[in-house]
Amino acid sequence: MLNHRLAAARKVAAHLMPAEADLESSIVRNARLQIAIVEARQEAKAPKNLGAAALVHLADAGQALAAAWTSMTSAHSALHEDQRLAGLSTFAFGDVDETPTKTTGIHAEPVLREVA
Fold first, then answer.
1. pLDDT at 30 over 90
2. Measured between alpha carbons, how far is 98 from 101 in angstroms, rounded to an integer?
3. Contact between residue 36 and residue 69 where contact means Cβ atoms under 8 Å apart
4. Per the domain annotation, does 111 fall within a domain?
5. pTM (predicted TM-score)
6. What is the CB neighbour count within 10 angstroms for residue 83?
7. C-alpha atoms less than 13 angstroms from C-alpha of 107 in its C-beta half-sphere
8. Residue 63 is part of which domain span?
9. Residue 98 falls within a domain, yes or no?
10. What is the pLDDT of residues 45-104, one digit of tens each?
11. What domain count does the chain have?
12. What is the Cα 41 distance to its own chain's centre?
């Protein structure tokens, strides 16, 4: 029974890390594309409004990617809890960093400091 749960967990883990990496890559590529549009317009000495509509759409895409990243982080945390419930807490599945939590992950309360 434990071997079956372990095999199933490994199958899921094999897809989780690449999915997270692909999503992060998409966030980076979207940001780089926005930069490339602005720099290309500047280099071409084109009107300021050239590329503006595309930038608005890419900003929307960036928001959607950020929301997807938040959801992916939540899914990772949920899978970590499922791992515990399945009795697999002592097994590692390739995580490089600590699993995000409500206090350490993307859902953590921001710390605001007054700067004098």
1. yes
2. 9
3. no
4. no
5. 0.73
6. 20
7. 13
8. 2-85
9. no
10. 999 999 999 999 999 999 999 999 999 999 999 998 988 888 888 777 766 556 555 555
11. 1
12. 29
